Amino acid sequence: MTDRAFVKEAAQFLQEKFQEKASLAIVLGSGLGNFVDSIKNKKSISYSQIPHFPKSTVSGHEGNFVWGKIEDVSLFILQGRVHYYEGHDFNAVTFPIRVLKELNVKTLVVTNAAGIVRTSFKPGELMLIKDHINLMGHNPLRGENEEAWGPRFPDMSEAYDKKYLSIAKKVARTLKLAVREGVYVGVNGPSYETPAEIKMLKTLGADAVGMSTVPEVIVANHQEMKVLGISCLSNYAAHTGSRLSHQEVLDIGKKVSEKFGLFLKNLVMHMR
Ligand code: HPA
């Protein structure tokens, strides 16, 4: 389990630097970081300056802790995340989520880029995550439980809050945005999946696949945060015969950034 004293130290540092509060936070995934350009009154600190914060090594992940406003809603934004495949353990991967709780954040919006498992979905579409499957082979809550954060055996029957899911669908309808809804499966990466693995994931009930989000959402649930998850569907996972590259994932992120930004902005105003 993550060291509580380290979390407190990081949160205190951010509180002193920002002198701001927010009850909502957004984690921006691969290629989606430029959403922060639309934030007003922004204050930003590089992860490298925050005590005990893990450092991102992946292109497309900027690594800034941001505070700002959308209309009159204050929010924190994690511009970029770290992944297990970079060599970080699950404590490091979920450290920022512990810090957000220490800063009194109640609601977490997690976003990511994901490969498409359900072939009726298309690259460039957004998928609301209704549930996940943890195929990462680990759990961030392993080890002695920190009772001050949450229970030893946290409930995961509504890991993605139904109320926020329904609000997100309503907001999408109002904006005339077609959004999908589906199950996200978390894998370790960094190699993309083989065609046989994608076939297996489909059989297991997955609609999209990615290398993040699951540990963050487990920790968020442990500490009783409400979660909304959004996947930006960037590519067909390995079943169309075409080859995959990280660049393709980043390119789609850029392409959908306008739609994604508009959706996120409107969502934030309806989520408080
Ligand atoms: N597989 C796993 N993770 C991903 C993919 C994929 O095809 N695309 C973006 N993240």
Can you name the CATH architecture? 3-Layer(aba) Sandwich
Give the helices and strands as they follow along the chain. Answer: HEEEEHEEHEHEHEH
Instruction: Specify the CATH homologous superfamily.
Output: Nucleoside phosphorylase domain
Query: Which fold does the CATH topology refer to?
Result: Rossmann fold
Overall outline: globular
Give the CA-CA distance, first to last residue: 30 Å
Oligomer: single chain
Overall pLDDT confidence? 92
SS-derived structural category? alpha/beta
The total of beta strands comes to: 9
Largest sheet: 5 strands, mixed, barrel
Strand content: 15-25%
Low-confidence stretches: none
Helix amount, in percent? Answer: 25-40%
Give the ligands present.
hypoxanthine
User: Could you give the order of strands across the largest sheet?
Assistant: 5-8-7-6-9
Assigned CATH class: Alpha Beta
Radius of gyration: 17 Å
Number of helices: 6
Tell me the count of domains. 1
